[in-house]
């Protein structure tokens, strides 16, 4: 495989807003879930979204146990964990999944391109590198029908199981607890690497770990044979440049409804929202990607024998 005439040894790609529309998926599902919780405990969206922002800042924007950690939910149910799980947490989780299913679809041309790459270059390693928790990332790739295309998945540490320390009891249902304790891999046979949270992008240590694992890190010539794909000019393109790897900007992943960005601000950690809301026009003047993709399938124009 070659990119612009140079043979490629490794393809590394982001997931969110690169493989699928994460903004539409997560903002719709999460905000809908908070509204459902507000109905159940007779609260309001603004109160719950402000509480959620604190929890997500402490953990990660895709922390899956937000509902049972919300102060308003805990105040409503006290130490009655069973009632909380049955009346509030499970219905809220189910509603999240119901809303999410319409958006957990790959961008157009993603499946077609990955299928062609796999057929034409069966020896090429394809790696997913994400700031999402490893379990959440693999759950999404599995739902998207994309997990089998990858040789490896690199994600952050799995979410902390919430507990009521006063009564020493976990605040999740037994089936969910077992999925997390068993480190559910969704049948994935490839490499799984859990990275420390301080390896989050735009820090270089996550991508550098990938390069080290594939014996590319210490060789500058080999770094030039890596293609890294991501949607964020700061977190992805600048990161690729800082490590000397060929970088493709998934420009299509920056095109989302501005109303959704405003909703994201209501519950998202300020740092995460700020990184997502950078001025693309200004940043594009300073950060020049090697390749600009109007859709993921455009990558095929840059792969040749």
Architecture overview:
The protein has helices at residues 22-41, 45-58, 71-77, 81-100, 110-120, 134-144, 174-181, 205-213, 220-223, 233-242, 258-267, 270-276, 280-286; strands at 2-3, 6-7, 10-13, 125-133, 152-156, 163-164, 169-170, 191-195, 226-230, 246-250, 291-293, 303-304. The protein is an alpha/beta fold and 305 residues long. The model has no long low-confidence stretch (mean pLDDT 89).
Features:
305 residues; alpha/beta; Rossmann fold; seven-stranded parallel beta sheet; three-stranded antiparallel beta sheet; 13 helices; 15% strand; elongated
The low-confidence runs, each spanning 5 or more residues with pLDDT under 50, are none
Shape: elongated
How many structural domains in the coordinates? 1
- What do we call the CATH topology? Rossmann fold
As a percent range, the share of helical residues equals: 40-55%
Largest sheet: 7 strands, parallel
CATH top level is: Alpha Beta
Total beta strand runs = 12
Total of DSSP H or I helical runs spanning 4+ residues: 13
Rounded mean pLDDT score: 89
Oligomer: single chain
Structural class: alpha/beta
Strand content: 15-25%
| String of helices and strands | EEEHHHHHEHEEEHEHHEHEHHHEE
Strand order of the largest sheet: 8-5-4-3-9-10-11
CATH architecture: 3-Layer(aba) Sandwich
Full CATH superfamily name: HAD superfamily/HAD-like
- Cα separation of the termini: 5 Å
- What is the gyration radius calculated from CA atoms? 20 Å
